[in-house]
Amino acid sequence: MITIRKFKRADTKTVAALVARTYEQFCSDEGNPKAVDRYINYFSAKTPDRLKELEERFANAEIIYVALNGIKIVGVVRGSRHRVSNLFVDGCCHRQGIGKRLMKMFEASAKQKGSEYIKIRASIYADKFYRRLGYKKTTGQRMFHGLKIQPLKKTLI
Fold it and tell me: What are the tens digits of pLDDT across the range 103-124?
């Protein structure tokens, strides 16, 4: 049974590992190798200082939810009322509607906070997923800090 709830500080290490592991598994060929390694290492939280930094970043997010399969965190969505910063679902749980449910919660929260739109710098891997949810390309693919992205936007009204 999948449940979705707000992020708790105690979730930090698990969420960070989920982001690093999932990005490495599905997006490691989407940019220059140094940029990809930098992204993965940032979320790997190998030091107490990095873990604390991530805890603050996650805890201070305007919107952040986790998806749980029982007690195991299998997904996360994070961002502000106008932008999704991260959406990751564990590879073993893809195509089960978890990402879609996380995005619906995110969009509802953004709308409640007064947003009329949401922008995403989607990985190339996730582009089709977002477009199935009604997001539209705003430009062609671009490089962002050495990573390939597809800018997308959805109007909420």
Answer: 999 999 999 999 999 999 999 9
CA angle 12, 77, 70 (to 5 degrees): 70
| Torsion angles phi and psi, residue 142, rounded to 5 | -140, 170
Domain definitions of the chain by residue range? 2-155
Residues 6+ apart with CB under 8 A from 15: 7, 58, 66, 73, 76
Identify the burial level of 14 via C-beta atoms within 10 angstroms of its C-beta, where 0-12 means exposed, 13-18 middle and 19 or more buried: middle
Instruction: Give the residue from 105, 120, 26 showing the smallest Cα distance to 66.
Output: 105
Under 8 Å between Cβ of 74 and 88: no
Residues with Cβ within 8 Å of residue 71, at least 6 apart in sequence: none
Does domain 2-155 fall under CATH 3.10.20.30? My reply is: no
3-class DSSP assignment, residue 99: helix
